[in-house]
Each structure stands twice: as C-alpha cells, then as structure tokens.
Write a structure and sequence with these properties.
The complex is a heterodimer.
Chain A: E1 29-35, E2 41-47, H1 54-57, H2 66-69, H3 78-92, H4 100-132, H5 143-149, H6 151-172, E3 181-182, E4 185-186, H7 192-222, H8 224-229, E5 236-241, E6 253-257, E7 263-268, E8 277-280, E9 289-292, H9 296-299, E10 302-303, H10 306-312, H11 319-330, H12 342-362, E11 381-388, E12 391-399, E13 405-411, H13 413-416, H14 418-432, H15 440-453, E14 469-474, E15 480-486
Parallel strand pairs in A: 1-14, 5-10
Antiparallel strand pairs in A: 1-2, 3-4, 5-6, 6-7, 8-9, 11-12, 12-13, 14-15
Helix pairs in contact in A: 4-6, 4-12, 5-6, 6-7, 7-12, 10-12, 11-12, 14-15
Chain B: E1 6-10, E2 13-17, H1 23-29, E3 53-56, E4 59-62, E5 73-75, H2 79-95, H3 110-117, E6 134-135, E7 141-144, H4 153-161, E8 167-170, E9 177-180, H5 197-200, E10 207-209, H6 222-225, H7 233-236
Parallel strand pairs in B: 1-5
Antiparallel strand pairs in B: 1-2, 3-4, 3-5, 6-7, 7-10, 8-9
Classes of the chains: A alpha+beta, B alpha+beta.
Bound molecules: iron/sulfur cluster and FE2/S2 (inorganic) cluster (FES).
Amino acid sequence: MPVSLETAADPENLKRVVIEPVSRVEGHGKVTLLLDADDRVRQARLHIVEFRGFEKFIQGRPYWEVPVLVQRLCGICPVSHHLAASKALDIIVGARALTPTAEKMRRLMHMGQILQSHALHFFHLASPDLLFGFEADVAERNIAHLAAVAPEVAKKGVLLRKYGQEIIRHTAGKRIHGTGSVPGGVNKNLSRAERASLLGEIDAIIAWSREAVDIVKRLFAENARLYETFGRFESGRLSLVRADGALDLYDGGLRATDAAGATLFDHADYQRYYELIHEEVKPWSYMKFPFLVERGAEAGWYRVGPLARVVHCDFIPTELAETERRALLDFDGGGALSAPLGYHWARMIEMLHAAEGIRELLLDNDLSGDDLLAGGERQLRGVGIIEAPRGTLIHHYRINEDEQIVSANLIVSTTHNNRAMNEAVCQVARQYFDGRELTEGLLNHIEIAIRAFDPCLSCATHALGKMPLELELRDAAGRRIGGLRRET
Amino acid sequence: MTEMTNTFTLDGKEIPFREGETIMAAATAAGVYIPHLCHRPGFKPHGSCKLCTVNIDGRPSAACTHLAAAGMRVESETEALNADRRALTQMLFVEGNHICPSCEKSGNCQLQAVAYHLGMSTPHFTHFYPARDVDASHPDVLLDRNRCILCELCVRASRDVDGKNVFGIGGRGIRSRLIVNAASGRLADTGLAVTDRAVAVCPTGALLRKRDGFSVPIGERRYDRHTISDVTTETEEERPRHD
Ligand code: SF4
Ligand code: FES
C-alpha cells in the first residue's frame, strides 16, 4: 500500500495532473447482442474501452521523446508504436529518406516484432482454441495445457517468440521499452558478431515457422466448412503495399479495395491519409469507426491485418512465404479469404515471411554501417504508418516552433477493425445463438471470433493474454434480457 | 599544499583529509562513495537534499557540509541510514513527475541511479502528480520542471561558474519551483547558452540539451558504463558538446 505524504492543509487547491497516459478503465470487453422482434440477432456491438487521454497527455512534450513514450500504449506490440511514431517524426526532422543502416535496422526490429507478436498470438492465445476444439473447457484453452499434450508444438511457439524478442533486444536495446529508433534514424547498428550469433538460429526459426503454417493449413483442410463459414463476412480491405505491389509491413503506399476486390485507391501517399479515411463516432462506443471517405460512413468500412495484407499484396517478396500465400489464395476456390479464421493462416504466413526477411537482413552488411541519422528542413507536421502485427497503425503529430507536440492523432489496428469485429461477432451469434439463452458455448465462440483479429484486446483491458469478456442480450425494445460474464 | 596527516574513520576505514575539507570531499578523494544529490565536486556545498546524512560520533549530519576533523568516527553504510536515504529518494520521486521508462535521461540520471543504488523498487508513497510546466522556449535547452528536484545545482552553476545568474528558486514548501530570471520568466529571454555548465550540471532530466533525446543507445549510457559509486565530475555530468 502506498503511504500518503500529503501535508497541505488545502490539498484540493493544489493543482495536479493525471500522468498515466493509458487510463485503462478497469473492466471487461463487453459484447451486446441486439435482437429483432423475432429474437434473431440483428446486430452485435463490441465495447472495448480503448486507451484514452493519450493524445492529451503528450501535448507539450518535446517531439523526440514521443517514440519512447508511445510504447506504453500496448503491452503486446510496443515496437509498432515506437516505429510508427519514429516514422512520423522522420518527416518532422526533415528526414524523407533514412540512411541504409537506419532503414534496415528498423526493418529488422519490425520483423522481430512481427515474429514475436504473431507467435504469441497464435501459439499462446489462439492455438488452444483451434487444437482442442471450440467447445473445450476454458481450463484447457491455454498454453500450459498445450505444453502438456503437445510439448513440441508449445516449445517451438515459445522459442519463436523468444527469438523475435532477441531481435528486438539487439535492435532496440531492450526487449520492451527500447530506444533504438529515433527521429531521423536509429541510435545503434548491429555488430558483425551480433549478426553472426543471431544467424546461428535462423534456419530453425524458418523451419518452425513453416511448421506453424502447416498447422493452420491442416486445420483448414480438415474442417473446411467450419473454418470457412465461422463468423464469415464480406468487406473491403486496407493495407500498405510496396511500390511494386509487394507485401511490405514497414512502409509503402495505401491500397484499398472493396468487398468484390475492386481497387478504390492504390499507392496513396499516406501523409494525406485524412483525406481518404474519416472516423465516425457512435454514441454507444468509445472507439471510433473509421471509414473510406469515397464510400461513405455506412458502406466504407474495411478490414485490416494479416489476412487483408496477404490477400491485398501482389506477391510476398520472400520465397517460402509466397508459396504459402498462393496455397491460401487457392484453397477451396478462395474459401479462406473472407473467413475470420483465415487471419490465423495469413498470420503464420507473415511469421514465415518475417523469419525469411530476418535472415536476408542479417546477411546485409549495411546493418553494421555507421551512418545512423538523416535530417533536413524542420516540418511542423508528420504522419507515420506501419503495418503492425494486427494491422495498419497510423500516427499523426503536429508540433509548434518550440518543438513541442501540439496535437496527435492515432488510429490503431483494433480501431480500423472495429466494424469488422462487430460483423464477425454478429455472424457467430447468428450461427450459434439459439434465440433464448446465453451459454458458455456461445461466449467461447464469440471469443474465438474476436481472437482471430485481436489476441486479447490488450490495449483495452488488463493483463497480457487475459480477455475478460461480458456478454449481454437486449431485446428489440433495447431492454436487457440476459447476461453472462467470464473473468479470464 | 597542506600535508594530509589528519585522518578520520569512515565505516572503519582511515580517510585522510586537508584542513577545511568536508567529509564528502575527503571521502570522494579517497574513492569512497557517500550517496548525494545536491552535491557536486567543485561546487559550494548546499546541504539541502540530506541524502548524504552520516553519523558523526553517533550524531547525524550532512557529509557534504560537515568539515572533517581528526579522529572523527563516521558511519555511512548502515542499514538505518540507507533506509532513510531510500525514503528520501522515494519522496523525491512522488513529489515530482518522474517517469523513468519514457524519460530521455534514463540511464544518465543521478536520481534514478541513486534509487537503484539504494535498492528502491517502488515509490512507496502516494504520488502527488503536481502540475508543473515545461519551458521549451529556448532554441537549444529544454526545462522540464516535472523532473526538477530543486537541488539548486543549476542556480549555483549559472551564478558561480557561468556568471549569468539565470536560475533561482521561488515559492515555498510544496509550491517551491525553479524560476528563470527574466521579466517574461522564459528561458528564451535569458543569456543561457547550451554550453553553460548550468545545463550540464543538472542531475535529473529537468534541464536538457534539446534534440539529444535517446541518441545514446541502451548499454552505452553513463550508468550502464559506470556505477554511481565511482564519483568523478565525468561520471556525474554531460561533457559539453562542441558542434
Ligand atoms: S533544474 Fe536540475 S539542476 Fe536545477 S534545481 Fe532542478 S534538478 Fe537541480
Ligand atoms: S548531498 Fe549533502 S545534503 Fe544533498
């Protein structure tokens, strides 16, 4: 228990600020199912309390502090925020292009992040659902149980994540809350010895990543109908792509397509993302609903993340992952492309791509170069976008002449996928709700649909890997007619 | 030069000293660390943070101001004294807004290093979260009062070394704050230069060279390379930048 040191006679008159940027309102992720007059599910609303107050909190802070500060926004992918903020600030310090060493160090850091986050998401959080069945006891749906029944699978999952974290440590300085990326470049390179030691393990990492792809591929093949239809919905897609159309998780132009796959815009300069994407506010949610301006608020929603990216790109620039991408595209005449569970498949393909990309980068002598920083004419605003593990991540800052942050706008992957997750949950509820009673089984299925996109709503709820969830049922008149909650 | 024939004992060790030398100065010269924050070798002692409190023949006193005398028996590394030091440090943490994970001074900060040295693992006391301002008006120097511990080292450095008298302390008690001696109260309207000792001397991240940020990687920061107990000006201060 903290001890109070308050001595002021009039403590109320002392001015105070709330310093914690991530005012996580303790609570549950909550799902409301709205019924129609015939007791069929009309709509699902996922309420997640997103981080709030952050944009306010960083006002007045010097811009160079931001890439480190923003890492506190997410317990799972701090590096994504670190890099997205750095990219926005590159623009502000006038570094339109980085030095080769800086660019490659950052790409390597990002690949490490993709590897560790995807491994965590799949092995620790999602694979127990998939391997033990959607109806399995909660007590069995965790990595400890996985370790007991399939020790080899669990062990590789753990080691894949660990390797990703090692890459982060070497590039950012620490596994979490590193400082490696700075406005205009990086603060360190990688020695030849460090590269050699990391290269020593990479072949095993690539091999295990291939096995991970195979696990999901096999699950799809064995349960094609279930996997293809579970929570399935159609929507547009958004992601970055490289100038030649390749998958690029670190940089590129924005590509958007509609549900039928027609291009809405391509290779768009993301410095002006706000002309393409607007955000709608709804009275029942703290989270905003982004949409493509061209299509309007109702029709313009889209999905982001691994499946959107893998479907979106023209090719993956590493060989093994590209072969796997083709297998996913061809599966059952495109049956996996709109399936929420297809996210896991795409996720493992991206993990394989990251493993291959890490090998390529570690062999590149530019990583050991000494030219770390670039700069140019100071700008007053900058936008940075990266493809974070869970999807497109936008950071947008404006500074004043004294180099302090004046305003910030962040759109995180979970926000982009807000409507998409509601849609998946709605479909699952339609498939598994009997019209009368909320059951544990239904809750499990909803949780599995959410987890396809987001491992644990970590930016919204409590601890890593926990997803406390509350389910609520409302009738056509809006009256609450049922509820169910689970703590883990 | 005075012969150093006089000695006192510090935790049982014989420490030689010159006439007029403080316990702190003699200990430092002998390579013995006494935790401190408002003291810096070469500066006039200030005696405000009380971190350096030692027992002199059984009575507590500040080592940075107390003159050494022959035959004194001084105790510093005792369980009780270190517990007091830890509590004082914790109070400094909760009185300001010190958020090490996102502070660019992390790894170079004396307050943080002292806290680690004393084994402080939590702030223990309730945070005050005071509202304090940032002065970013100077083109090359940032003043972030959230991190100021009112040690007055910058006040002394600016007045006694730089000859500019840029800083002062205003207000009382919990409302004390570092003030800038200009009609506008803004750093931009003073003669402060980024190369001034006043900027380098700050033991925390309150006075910073702008844009340095996180340019030094983890592993190469001051307290990654030195321990706080090897005290020299070099281990306690930024070297002036010549660019
Ligand atoms: S700004 Fe730094 S040197 Fe000056 S009083 Fe505050 S902590 Fe001490
Ligand atoms: S160092 Fe002696 S009182 Fe601060």
